[in-house]
Amino acid sequence: MENTKHGNKYGLLQHIEEPKHPWETINMDWVTGLLQGGKENFNYFLFKVDRYSKSVRCLPCHKEGTAMDTALLFWKNIISTCGVPKIIISDRDPKFTS
Asked: Which residues belong to any copy of the Integrase catalytic domain (predicted)?
């Protein structure tokens, strides 16, 4: 029996330089599987972590949200207050890459 790997090949790991300024490099990921809550029945959270200050922003949203919804969240909650990050680190979720 032959083991064959299917799917996309992953790139090589790259060294990530330490940021020199707040919100220059951020990590983003989804927290899923939550019970609906709040006035708007949110069931997802988008976490953004600033690698410089270790500051965390937790943005409530909906599972049904699209890549456009994610972009709007990002614009309203990061770019408009902190500027455009130089590096964004994510797991390449379709909501980040579409």
From this structure: 18-98
